[in-house]
Amino acid sequence: MRLMVCGVPVCVIRAGESGMSEKIDFSTIRFLVVDSNRLFLDMIKDVLNMMGAATILRAPDVEKAKKLLREDSIDVLITEWTLEGQSGMELLHHIRTSADSPNRMLPVVMLTANSEENYVLAARDHGVTEFLAKPFTVQSFYDRLVSVIARPRAFVDAESYFGPDRRRRQTEFSGPDRRQAAS
């Protein structure tokens, strides 16, 4: 199956009965990795290269990331929460809410050691697409990338929130529908 991600055709091979996740052709996807730690930038670049990624841009801070987002077509952003200067959350806020954002629907994967529930909820409520706590395995990183590329969630544009639908699963609801359709 071929999908279009930010205008780029991506080959997705769905798993059969084996239970394995989809296989993604990462060679056509443009990544931007943001982290103040150069060793971490190098490690993520190496992992993405191992997965087949060909275009991996790196930024040590939010200002450089914003510049790269304006100048290049990025398909997936991977950022650390804690950066020098501004935080990854401030970058996420810029992407989701700023008129200067080149792509408000850009998939954003937050990789961070800040894994406490309040951090996860804050990232979700600011529009992060996926959250992955450090330390992590290559498989869990791959699974998050597959999720944002092969199974993108619908975006919600509400008065106080813009970002991917925060509901991961649909559940039956037996009460009255009190939602009002937008006019």
User: Helix count, per DSSP?
Assistant: 5
Content of β-strand: 15-25%
Classify the helix fraction into a percent range.
25-40%
Report how far apart the termini are.
36 Å
The CATH C-level name is: Alpha Beta
SSE-based structural type: alpha/beta
Q: What's the alpha carbon Rg, rounded to whole Å? A: 17 Å
Number-wise, the strands total 10
CATH architecture tag: 3-Layer(aba) Sandwich
Order of helices and strands: EEEEHEHEHEHEHEE
Mean pLDDT, rounded to whole units? 82
Strand order of the largest sheet: 5-4-6-7-8
Task: List the main descriptive attributes of the protein structure presented here.
Rossmann fold, 183 residues, 5-stranded parallel sheet, 3-stranded antiparallel sheet, 23% strand, disordered N terminus, globular, alpha/beta
Characterise the protein shown here:
This protein has 183 residues and is of the alpha/beta class. The protein has 5 helices and 10 strands. The protein has one domain (7-13, 20-164): Response regulator (Rossmann fold, 3-Layer(aba) Sandwich), CATH 3.40.50. It has helices at residues 38-50, 62-71, 88-97, 117-125, 138-150; strands at 2-5, 8-13, 23-24, 30-34, 55-59, 76-79, 108-112, 130-133, 155-158, 161-164. It has a 5-stranded parallel beta sheet, with helices on both faces. The model is unreliable at 1-20 (pLDDT under 50).
